[in-house]
Amino acid sequence: MLDPKELKNRQRKKTPLRWLFLKKNLNKTPFIATEFIDGETLRERMKAGLRLLDALEFSIQIAGALAAAHAAGIVHRDIKPENVMLRRDGIVKVLDFGLAKLTERTSPDSVDTEAPQRVAVN
Q: In this structure, what are the phi and psi dihedrals at residue 119, rounded to the nearest 5 degrees?
């Protein structure tokens, strides 16, 4: 489980990732709130037909989301069209971090030097 302070620090960063927020209501009952995304999954768009230019734009945004996750020390480990939402305004959001794994970093400014395949397996 992620330390609550660390989670708040990661949530404050502006990223193309869809964050979950653990909150408490007036009765101090915890609940999870997520960002509402008005759109469709990448899989749904692919079934309807996808232009090459759109595919390239979506790929660039997905790569940016994964780079943001990796910079925050998170490896997604379940990227697939069903876990990518396309908002109606063209913004891409990466979903479902249920299989994600936190990576160890020696300092916040350090760059992970392990191969992505090795990090994903660990």
A: -60, -40
Q: Are 39 and 87 in contact (CB under 8 A)?
A: yes
Domain enclosing residue 43, as ranges: 39-94
Does residue 5 form part of some domain? no
Contact 81, 46 (CB under 8 A): yes
Select the more confidently predicted residue: 103 or 61: 61
Active site residue 54: no
> Is residue 26 one of the residues assigned to a domain?
no
Of the residues 3, 78, 89, 112, only one is catalytic, namely 78
24 — pLDDT class (breaks 50, 70, 90): low
> Which is more confident, 31 or 34?
34
- pTM score: 0.63
Give the max Cα distance, the chain: 50
